[in-house]
Specification:
Chain A is an alpha/beta fold and about 250 residues long. Chain A is about 45% helix and about 15% strand. The longest helix of chain A has 13 residues.
Chain lengths: ~250, ~250, ~250, ~250, ~250, ~250, ~250, ~250
């Protein structure tokens, strides 16, 4: 029941001003469009509540997922999900689980609603957990993903041999730990937006990802936006928003 | 002359293999499409070389601008341009200069080629130099810009009163110094991508922008990409790329 | 025996100057009122010695509590108490124990002596251990506490829906990890003093709470005092002092 | 015109639902009480808009002050005001100016509305600019201030000799640069809330105030809230809020 | 098949221009000499792919090593190899394993191809794991290594007693944790290049190796290049390159 | 055999110049007095080699101690000794072991050779491991030690009640974690040299002892020298050197 | 009038208990010996109030010095004194001024009251301002000073050539900027206490003295106490206290 | 006169043991070869004392240069030389001065004594001062230098177009500010040793060169040694040592 309906009810005497005032007070943001935002977002991006598994017990995660399942939800995303939680869920539900990235997806069902391809590029196998968190999240949000995981700048020829894939992507997620340089090189090659994810992989003066983070922020290539260290999920959300701007697929 | 032309010339005997080999060697990246990338980028984004004024003398800037002017360039962008350089250029060229952001534009001529509006939001007047660097840069790159400069989170009602403008933007550039919280609040309200720019405005434990930078990287709102401290230019480039993804206006 | 009594004893010849001098020397601070301070504080704030459980064995904690119990103490507070200590105490005493915040209270008995309500607000479930340390401590010190744990700024409507509770509080304890922005938003809405507690919850560029700490120190909202990272106890002590300033309940 | 009046006007046909809906939309926060908050705050704390002088020209400051003066405002506070701005204002208005703290007050007029005394304590003359910013701000907001500026912990006898003044204060603002220890010592002596202000005074491993800041956050004394480095103004606002909680003087 | 061969094939009609263009496209870096670089490097330095053991399972390491073994490779180097991986490999292959430095070498076979001796110097036994990673790596790459592990600057006489060995080395790898001073002292004594390796050994204000790192970067001795904290492997690669510059042994 | 003896042997023909030159070369520092330094130091300070237990196996420690025992050494000091090493040694030798500080002493035998008393002061029980490392080390080196472990600055009366002991000490070792303020207060009260030891005890913005370290370096009290975080051993060595300067007891 | 006199006056009826109580209250620390401490310190160390010139006007400094001069003080020490203050004082008083270290001394008059020599050692001319602040301060406090300013560790032979002077000193002040290594080397050579002063001299990763500070705190040589960056004065006070412990010269 | 000569003189009675002992004592390091080291180094590398101009007056620099000139020295190098010093010297001597890098060379005279070419590569004009300090220093030390200043990684084609020059260099000095990525890319392309110089050029999260420094230390390319921020001189010294290892040109 929105503001206009309430006002009409008042006008027509079906509701007293006191009742109307209470209605407006208890749902104060409804007339501000807040709830609509949330609905709109879900509709447009296939984005529903995401479960951050790190601080929840297996039982809690199961409970939330079953409730969502009963509503008929697909693609229920659980990030940072511990193996023991995955074991429990697999006994009760249709769960996809990637132990490397600790991403779980209940009732997985892919549908491409994006404008183009999101390329996830990185330079080494050790960044793969973060890469997969980004890739799987992007897929859940309706994006086609191209994984390009072996293009470190210290072996430039490998990157150049995958140049076509990199250059034809609509959005690029560049994941790098020690090798933060990847972002500058890729950012200089493409005209697509680049979402940069520093990772905590490395040792010594890597300082848990600070080295890569600073490097990415200082990248001489323009068109780069940086997310938090190891935040593959956040990178995928941003990339997905960008990849749905054209609205090509929705038509 | 591209690779196919060279190869055909060899085939037809108009060129010896030695000449061809030299040709390929001296312009090795031409056949890799590098130059084409640059041309393509310029065509698509209206983006030409940008002059970083901070490390150049007024005479150097004048020289570069005159050369570009002779080629018929419009919207020649100079960032971090000192007032004395502006004074010199104004005697010889058609220069727009904003002393606050130190942005200069030669042969300014606006043409909207973007998909929608880029909103530049900030919480206080002291962030305005960075805001204007972002806003003017975005305009040069063919984007319509909405300036919303008085929406600090400590006075939430001001932000809510501009909610329509914020929510209807296609991309948002959120600029904040001490008040890095703006990004989380705005990021939670909108479904558009948010480019966050921390500024060095503030004092004490602000540490030259580190406080705002960390806050933005840790924002609980998803869909946020962060650029370097005070980097209004970089934010605008990223926002412009995103705002040209749909290709709506180009048709 | 205080200074006046000693001096009168000297005057009346019941004590030699030498004896008096020794008396004053060996208890030098008694005549400075130090001990009185402690008594006064305990009387006024219902505050007795607090046991920091982190560096004590279960047996040590039990011993201290039994000694205090024999003196007739209520509301004996133990912070950072490990589960094994709780198990031991529960076999011998009347212990309330909250495993989340690791707060233990022996002979719990609530009495509201404060001027108004202390609201503990936070944006997510992961900050709850620190929130509960603050809330339970505040209750032990005689304050009524309102828990408002789901008002993160990225979902502004949730905060606005609890606005009445937040605005009617006498003092606010704002607990936030990654989402340090909560302090600026709340501080801008209320006229009550705000005690801000950064938490170490988060990852990456959160740096164990530094991100939230800096954000709170730089808050553009006035009227905010910050305590150490994860220091729910300290926040409650400060809030309790403020909530007892009016002396309304004591009359 | 509030929500109830609008609803009654709709009921009585004096306003169409469409007009009412527009009214509610364009002033969406009025029915949420936001504007009332601001009024309430001003009435209760004698707090009006404060002018941050650091980023304004003398002419801008003059303009704002004259506008406020015309509305009949007293105690117009300007912080971080440069001497040249003070010179200009003194030619046109009734300005009090303290060159040390760079605080200016137009139409200064003190009225004690607080519950008790705010003591501003510090250990050395070099912290005096921050101390005076705090003290003058507190006075503008209606608090009686006791200045205790020579009580560094390295000369403990000086602090002990002022013990009565420190202990009888209702709130304490402790200002310290290198000598952050003052907060722990004072916090251990009093039962009043302590607002701690680290200053950037010092050299070497002081790191622009970080040393004092960390020390205060780690203070073993409870009941301490910390503000930003050099933020005398913010400390005074918090102290003033606390000193007006009892409402004793307002009756 | 290199560029010239392709061009000749086109000229002679053995290949169509289209086939040639595809060939050039799919192996674009071949004509740039990239692959040749890698071959050249391997030939010249005896350097083949190195296996970073930290992020691989024992089974993965075994698989890679067996594949390399089948190609006839010697001196297969595995760094940061966990004991359980060593156990597995030892059952199937000819593995040398040093549990201290966690370096493993399959089919170890030393051949001195360097110009002179690489001296690895350090001041204490606790740096030995990093020292041995450097020493064993250098040996794998064909360098004769002199281990000088007991020459801390706080006992200068020990260093002076080994002066001949230090001064006659062709390259020096100086490894130091807390005792970063070693680099300055050694760098002042010798005319050979010094590769400095800070280690994370120590405690307190050592900050995981930052203390030694900064000290080495600020060394007043010239001719010093620093590698990452604990990066014995990287130091050995650089030292080996330097020790092969003269080409004396290769003749 | 020192330089003069060698030279006389040459003069008298008992040694050839070649033999002498070798002698001087192989023990180059003997004629520089290096060895004498070490002997002299041992004689004067009762200081022999100290065993850093953290990086040694129980068997290694036992071996070293037995060798020293056979030479007739007393007071063999082992720092950071793990309990399992203590267990082994206790089966074979006369070992004193303090599990709190992890200090072990073989053939303990106290002899007071210092000028006066070294007072070890601290503010809380949690700093006790570092305190005891300092106290036991000082005793091994021949100093009488007064332990004053309950004098935190937040309870100033406790410190004042122990003032006589603090002020009569010849050297003071002040140990403090969060409560770094202790150093400033003590340093202001006494005229004796103060050796300050920051500890890593605490949490949050304590940053593993950095808070206390910075505070001590910035202490407004003069006459304070700081050692590394948690370095009770180093503090004791410095304090012992100072306490043996007068040479009073040695006569 | 001390406690005993007051008590006797009470006993003899010359003072009422009330008068005595007031007396004790208003000068509470007199009977605690605080004032005596200050006197004692002055007598023993020739140490009077030191003027920190950095935050005082030339006129203020002149006023303080004239007041002290009238009391007959010698060796009035002014640190961090600007040239313009020196100019003013030289017109009115007997001022020694060293422009390099900015140390001023009024009525300079040297008297050796120390046990031995304090050696000030450093590695380069750029540390000389801090060295001289230390050396001149030490002289003012009655110590004989040996300046050894050219003994950087990168040229070890220079240090060894001055070994006798270094080793015969009673206390050593080691001043070092980039070359923090000096402390470890010197600390390993001598048995005297070493006071280490990091300086802010240098650039880049020197970070204003942090590099040298960390290096000194981590020195592997025992017997070293560190003071704040650039704090030559503080080092001299500590060294002077140590150099007066034996009391040899005072007899 | 070396040790053998002294010993022979003693044997033959031409010198008493006492004279010999004094001789050995006063020049203790002569028999250790220290002086010889210095001579040897100068002879071998054409390296004489370098004047650090930053902390010297123009007159001091002139004096030193004239003294060296009288000894017949060529290629007297002055780094960080202010323009006013250059002006003075140019009036009296044959000075080459580069105002950009502030390098001065008296009696410049180039002679190529190196094994090959040192390439100085960088990505932008703003790093040029550091580049030139490195290049000019390398030339003074007898190396042929190839300047490659426009090869930033964000424009990879520019680097690839200079690939031959980069790959044919014997040693590479890679200079980079924000664009620290250059080191990884270059290090991956070449087999020559790379000396990496971070510069302080940039703004924001560049933190005065820390961003580039960390990036270089974490480079995934092996064979890289890093020097201090902005330390072009130190890089050149290290590169020159490496470039003289083969000894090819000296024959």
């Amino acid at each position: 029941m929105d503001t206009m309906e309430i006002l009409n009810a008042v006008k027509e005497g079906r509701m007293t001003p006191e009742q109307a005032e209470l209605k407006l007070r208890t749902q104060p943001y409804e007339d501000l469009g807040f709830v609509k935002i949330d609905h709109h977002r879900a509709l447009r991006q296939g984005m529903q509540e995401v479960i951050y598994g790190a601080s929840k017990t297996p039982e809690q995660i199961l409970g939330i997922c079953q409730a969502m399942d009963h509503k008929g939800d697909n693609n229920i995303l659980i990030t940072r999900m511990k193996p023991e939680a995955a074991e429990l869920l697999q006994q009760h539900m249709d769960l996809f689980y990637d132990p490397l990235s600790r991403v779980g997806i209940v009732n997985r069902s892919f549908k491409d609603t994006g404008d183009g391809v999101i390329a996830v590029v990185s330079g080494g196998t050790s960044d793969q957990p973060v890469c997969e968190e980004a890739a799987l999240t992007a897929e859940v949000f309706g994006n086609r993903v191209e994984r390009i995981y072996d293009v470190g700048v210290a072996g430039l020829h490998r990157l150049l041999s995958r140049l076509d894939d990199v250059m034809s992507a609509n959005v690029i997620i560049a994941v790098a730990g020690m090798e933060g340089a990847l972002v500058s090189v890729v950012g200089g090659l493409v005209s697509a937006p680049v979402v940069a994810v520093p990772t905590s992989v490395g040792y010594g003066a890597n300082f848990g990802g600070v080295s890569a983070l600073l490097n990415m922020l200082n990248s001489c290539a323009s068109g780069v936006g940086v997310v938090n260290i190891d935040n593959g999920f956040g990178a995928a959300v941003l990339a997905s928003r960008i990849n749905h701007m054209g609205g090509h697929k929705k038509a």
